[in-house]
Amino acid sequence: MSEDQDAMDLAADWADISQGLRKDLGQQLHSQWIRPVQLGSFCKETGTLDLYLPTEFSANWVSDRFADRLSLAWKIARPDVRNVRISAQPGRRQLAELRIGKDGSSRRPANDGAVLGADSGAIAVGGDLAPMNGTGIGSIGLDPSLTFVTFVSGAANVLAANAAQRMAATETPQFAPLYLKAATGQGKTHLLHAIGHAYLVNHPRARIFYCSAERFMVEFVQALRQNQMIEFKSRLRGFDLLLVDDIQFIIGKASAQEELLYTIDALLAEGKRLVFAADRAPQALDGVEQRLLSRLSMGLVADIQPADIELRRLILEHRLARFAPTEVPSDVVEFLARTINRNVRELVGGLNKLIAYAQLTGQAVSLQLAEEQLTDILSANRRRITIDEIQRTVCQFYRVDRTEMASKRRARAVVRPRQVAMYLAKVLTPRSYPEIGRKFGGRDHSTVIHAVRLIEDLRTRDADMDGDVRSLLRQLES
Fold first, then answer.
1. What are phi and psi of 220, to 5 degrees?
2. Beta bridge partners of 42
3. What's the rounded Cα separation, in Å, for the pair 3 and 234?
4. Closest C-alpha to 211, from 235, 192, 231, 228
5. How many other CB atoms sit within 10 Å of the CB of residue 376?
6. Beta carbons within 10 angstroms of residue 111's beta carbon
7. Where do the DSSP E strands lie in 216-354?
8. In angstroms, rounded to a whole number, what is the distance separating the alpha carbons of residues 307 and 186?
9. Please, how many CA atoms are within 13 Å of residue 476, restricted to the half-sphere of its CB?
10. Cβ(214)–Cβ(183) below 8 Å
């Protein structure tokens, strides 16, 4: 069990490192040289991690140009990695480009990060070997870090998470197909990969195909041009589980839509499983044939809502468990969870950047460091909340008149809401203490400081007060 967890942690770290390198190097360099890298063994005694590439040439090329960068990235992600060794994978060779058609044109298949057995001439799909017949559709290419274990669920995504697990279970699901709908960075692709991994565990010899709708289009057009549609259809309909991401990109392609429609019908008739993901509901897909829309929506459409602040906290805590011994104070976690609210991908990226900077510079993670180093991410996520909006929301919540925010009354029923509003003004706006004081009837900055410190203290001791503040934060940030 410990070895399995170590392997999963390594895979998750590699996914983060690979994503960072893609941003630094660009899509083309990353796809050609970094994406084919495979994780090898990790020796805890020597701190040596092996990274493999398909050929001696590619291993030497990556070692010459990216060895230092890979080594530094791994040391940041895992302090116990002291050496990174890059070499050609024993008994493996680079995936040959597929020759399609008589003109000799060639291109990489959907799984362009996969490798072939040295003498097999076949691509591994689940537990079987599928002969390469020139259609360009190959193995599943799932990200090893995107599993149900690493997916954090909450109120915003619980329906989609439970439905995804049911789709991967041994028992036949009651709905088909499953359609995951979510905005960018909210976890729909993570669930697609997790379904594939769990399905293979429950069905070791299953044949799985994962692709984007755009890749499906490319493969379809290629087969059409090369007169290989029979092979394309036969191969596509031979899978036990079909996972298609970003289905919105199939818009307007009538012939491809028709082929996907027939494929859905054929797979469903045989009791096979299909999962689609998109950034909008089926009914909102413009330019899609009505028959295909009905197939996409005939099963379960599971909506993933933007992560609320509680889920964002859980995600950060889950990620922090992998960064020990780096300490991240609770106020920093709260700040990130509250401020980076557009999508989960940005939230995790912000945490990774903050910890990497702290480790590289030897500084302690602090609220000030987070504000300094995450300026771009924070500014992109911050909604302009005004003090007037805060006062109005607090008055509605506590049922007090708006004029009490600036009045001199000292009754507890008025003072406490006023102090909460001052606290929220400091937390949610860039205004200084004197500026906040002026918005509350011209009060002195020391009064605002007292109110902020009092509410901070009450939140740690009084569950009701903490609940009130959390509820107000949700209202103001929604």
1. -65, -50
2. 49
3. 39
4. 192
5. 10
6. 22
7. 241-245, 273-278, 300-304
8. 7
9. 29
10. no
The tens digit of pLDDT for each residue in 222-256 reads 888 888 888 888 888 888 999 999 888 876 667 88
Give the separation between CA 266 and CA 212, rounded to whole angstroms. Answer: 20
Please name the residue that has the structure tokens 């468990």.
321
Q: Strands 273-278 and 241-245, how do they pair?
A: parallel
Q: Evaluate if residue 440 carries a pLDDT over 90.
A: yes
In this structure, what DSSP letter does residue 452 have?
Answer: H
- What is the tens place of the pLDDT at every residue in 274-325? 999 999 899 888 778 889 999 999 999 999 998 988 999 999 998 888 765 6
**What is the rounded (10 degree) CA torsion for 422, 426, 430, 436?**
30
User: What residues contact residue 372 under an 8 Å CB cut-off, 6+ apart?
Assistant: none
pTM of the complete model = 0.57
Name all domains of the chain by residue range, CATH numbers in brackets: 2-94 (3.30.300.180), 158-304 (3.40.50.300), 309-381 (1.10.8.60), 387-477 (1.10.1750.10)
**Is residue 253 within 8 Å of residue 215, measured between CB atoms?**
no
Tens-place pLDDT, residues 87-130: 887 654 332 222 223 333 333 333 333 322 222 222 223 433 33
How far is Cα 12 from Cα 7, in angstroms, rounded to an integer?
9
